[in-house]
Request: fold
Amino acid sequence: MPQPQPQKTYLTGNDRLDEARRLAARYNAGETIRAIAQDTGRSYGSVHQLLRLAKVRFRQRGGTTQPKPAANGRPHREEGQGK
Reply:
């Protein structure tokens, strides 16, 4: 038999702003929206909406990326390095 789902809590007013700030601090510390959503029991969309409310600057999708090699197959040179 499936477990009953916990009662959803709706945030309004200052409680909503406080929760948005708490989630923003976690996101700015490097957590993903999905991780925050899973930990808090909220949906991805509701966490995203609360982060927007907190005026968070969202990271680009895909995590960290490494530079692609140049067309000739050699890695890019660092700035200031000679040949």
User: Anything to note?
Assistant: The two ends are 68 Å apart (CA to CA). Residues 28 and 56 are 8 Å apart (CA to CA).
